[in-house]
Queue: 3 jobs
Job 1
Amino acid sequence: MNKRFASPLFAGFLAAGLLLSSVHAQDKQPIDRIAAVVDEDVILKTELDRAVANILSQYAGRSEQLPPRDVLERQVLERLILLKIQVAQAQGTGVRVTDQEVDQAIGSIAQSNKLSIDQLRQQLARDGSSYTDFRTSIRDELLVQRLRQRFAQTRVSVSDAEIDAALKAQANTGTQYHLAHILIALPEGATPEQIATAQKKVDGVKTLIAKGEMDFNAAAVRYSDSPNALEGGDLGWRSLDEIPAAFGEMMKSMKAGEVTDPIRGPSGFQLLKLVEVRDASQSGPQMVTQYHARHVLVRINDTTTEAQAKAKAETLRARIAGGAKFEDVVKESSEDLGTQGKGGDLGWFTQDEFGPEFGGAVAALADNEVSQPIHTTAGYHIVQRLGTRQSDVADQSKRAQVQETIGRRKLEEEWNRFLREKRGEAYVDFRVGKAADASQPGTETTVPAKPAGG
């Protein structure tokens, strides 16, 4: 796998191969084909080729696990189509990402790889990628993240009753299951013939795995229709409350390494593999240090640059040092509307609750001490630490964890359903591959390739 730029943000679009490439040929501007039309946008053939090349580099030495080239191109093209749909949906519903936020994300990627921004530019150029396209990819990734967050806030809720029920079910077990899956998808309103074809395919895949002719990960890469197919179908670690009840009962009776028989679900037929099992139960008190603090926030946005925000925060800090009441400065100047009416009071929190920069700065203060400006992704903060305490958060932590896992499961189900709906509604015109051959035999559309730059 290409790990040149290792960061959680970058890994998302690197795995999907979303870096674009530009090719130069002496004095002639090259011609770039259209791979697919997606509503009012297009995916260029160079985008698809670059994405496929990234996948091939990840599987260097293991290329036999990959499907045939035409199938791989279809899988990657579908990922690119979904990305276009999500970005368009985000923009159409008012989701915005500022230039400063893109700069901060790129700065984090460069820093995590021990590079300056100039060095990052140079590395991209050596890899044949333009910095402008790199920024676009980062912006798209941030837009999709924001869209998903907004979706979660409006579509996903977890009640106290659900948390209580999950805690009761977990009372005698802390078992977690590492799962992987293969999905043979069915369209909405599938015909009997489509269902029969999918059933035959999933049975054939199960037979290959059962006979040892192909391991599960390789079968997922080659045959699964799931978005995580190219990751071997890996679903990660899940507790019982993160697994649909019908599947959870199966997991209890399975051993590590076993694969279920085909299961019919809302998306199609699935094969589930139990990779590993572990005991994640916690007993006894869970003592942590908590801090009580209040803050003034100066945000960085389209109208306030980082330098301006820092200068304003330094002025506010000087006012407090000169005798101004902290709560008065909060009321007049803080841009955190959630705490402004409470004098900036953040309540009790753990060091990692508001991010490493904020938490580290608070931990370094003495009680009643006022900090210098603290830079975080939200902007610049002036913080006064009011006190510390040791607290047993075992019950609180467990409840919060259960709420998060239930919410994550619900979000995954709702988000996948949402993406299927949007994919079904989108106008998609394939210009390469078998789908294009079937609908437009002998045709080929070209457009001028974008020049490298940035």
Job 2
Amino acid sequence: MKPRDPHQQPATKRVLLLGANGQLAADLRRTLGHYELVTMAREDLDLTDLAAIGPAIERQSPDVVVNTAAYNLVDKAEEDPLAAFAVNTHAAGAIARASTAAGALLVHFSTDYVFDGQGAAVDAAFSEEDLPSPQSQYGISKLAGEYQVRAYAAECLVIRTCGLYGVKGSRGKGGNFVETMLRLAAKGGPVRVVADQRCTPTFTADLAEATARLLATRPDVHWKDILHVTNAGRTTWHDFAKEIFEASGLEVPLEPISTEEFGAPARRPVHSVLSNEKLARLAGIAPPRDWRDALRDYLSQRPNR
């Protein structure tokens, strides 16, 4: 490990970005572009090859490792949990060990799906101190990954977020929720969307900005910590879809359905709004803007498809 005075905040110079082809990574390339930025996509590093992770990170000699890589096919993970655990848990642990060996801070992204949302009031939001209780193989694998990161990384920050969508889209999901809704709208509807799950849709550009500010300021937080970072406010997937259509000037028949009617293989939290209070209180960073404003910004940036 590189020798460093533990009482002195290190200057971030070289950043290694993992999962570099994802929609969040696309925005992080922009917000972290003033650093010496090295990127690795799946083609550069197979995270299921645990033996390859340590040498690959060591060769880059990073000051910070930012891990956006994840297996996020929530329903498919129910059929093939080993695939989810390979990337979300075991690879996360190997990345944590390698980051420690390199003397690097690890920034690792997790999910609202570590909570079940049961018994949460409509106006409540989960804090970092609330007890996780994931309901799906995906959520369990991500929570196990959090534990691996915090156990094996000498310095780490786990950032939980919710409902990500970005201009680049997510290759594995064939887009994102916004693009899925617009694609269904183009078919004429009606569009049926779950109305009994509450969350906070989060624009990856805003999450990337907050992440960059965290690295730039190195706030007075314990660097084996968890922070929630989402856009502000809350909604249901149904009302999110309604806002997408209204902001796009589309009149689309929209039908609310229940989680039970939707019948997805994986159980989702009925309420997974995350509190940004700790981000402001301890990190001194203003929470991202309201999700409605972020959505309109996204719609103004998306290329013609």
Job 3
Amino acid sequence: MTVLELVKPLPPVQREEKPKDRTDFYLAVGLTTAVLALLAWNITGFPAASDDEGTYLAQAWAVQNGKGLAHYTYWYDHPPLAWIQLAAGAWLPGLIAPSLLAVAAGRIAMLPLQAAGLLLVYVIGRRVGFPRWAAALGLLTYGLSPLFLTMGRQIYLDSFAVVWILAALALALSPSRHLWHYAAAGAAAAVGVLSKETILVILPAVLVALWQNTARSTTRTWAFGAFASGLVLVGCFYPLYALLRGELFPGAGHVSLFGAIQFQLGSRSGSGSVFEAGSGANSLLHSWMYYDSVLLIAGAVATIAGLVLRRLRPVTVAGAILILVALRPGGYLPAMYVVQVLPFFALAIAGVLFHTLSRLQHGWKWSAIALAVVLAAVVVAPRWYVGDRRALTANDNAAYVQAAQYLRAQPPSTVVVDDVLWLDCVNAGYPEDRVLWFYKLDLDSEVAARLPGGWRDVDYIVSSPALRQDPGTLPTVTALLRNSTVIESFGSADGVIEIRKVDKEPS
């Protein structure tokens, strides 16, 4: 044997690679698919289409067709990124099923977004230390809530914003702790804010996650720097857009970003206090409780209790901030605000339950599990069954569908509608400048200029619940209703939709 043979290196040992554990993937995807099937079932029939949904969908249409950021003058009431995202997919359902109500097609386009939100709830649960069963419980608590099966079906900017802020939290909690994860977390947070500005209040929760997931001596400074870079670089596009258009500051003859902010913060009418009987905020809280008091009450209690649990704190800080914002007296509380609350309440419930069980001795643990199962079967399941069953069976949009079908069959004319039906008319071939959103008749000088003869230049007005909700506050709409005759009506009671022909000569 030669010396070279003696020093020749041994062949590398062939190590058998262990197959990667895909349990989390299959569990999360399986549960998300099941919840998504429930969300999609009867999505066109329930809940009733809202004017906000039609507005955002029409703005997405404007982006798709190169009409700018809105189908009317864009006045910076909200950042536009949510409906820009909606524009990327809203065309597909209508292409496949053109007979669908436009809002129904837009709801179907929201399903991939909601799937991402459900998956992120599971991911965040795992990254704050939940076992699989607790992360799955968080996903199901969120996804099976009647509030989610109602609000999650609708086209709301808050749905985009909350998914992006969940993505920011998931990235900030990444176990890999790569610097690009933190920069991406900042970018995701900025996209969330540019989807719905009110999500900005949850930003401290993302910072808490960053703080907990970084080491003080090594990565923390760099992590916060990367996060700030992503946040600023993406977030600055919105004010830059306004600056380049000469619309950053208020001035004569144009809208402005700071003018809109001033209106939202100082001029907009408040909703009152949630503790004041009869106030808008109090009525709104009762409407949320009607759909699901279990998740709201248990989630609020779990959020406050979970603030003492370090690993759960990013989630509970977010929930606590949202509670405080809702409780502030005199502020404006929109109906879709609860969309932001639901995932954090669901995670708080699952997290507090897990931490409680993990601290109990063996005998007490099984007693607590038995109690939780009994409460779920006796209290939660019956309430959720009633709410979920309504979501899966009710048909609250039949009148809108019939009205849309009637309008599509008529020759194009000048018609005043709410925003639910605006896109249906445009898709049916009505000239877009002759389909007028009722709210703009008295509040947009550009729209008023299209009607030199005032209300007499309108051929038809479609009277819907949204159009009738503020009687007497819009003079042109009031005149149209007074000087028109019902030629077709669909639905009944308060939800009736009337096609009214305008009488050119006042009665």
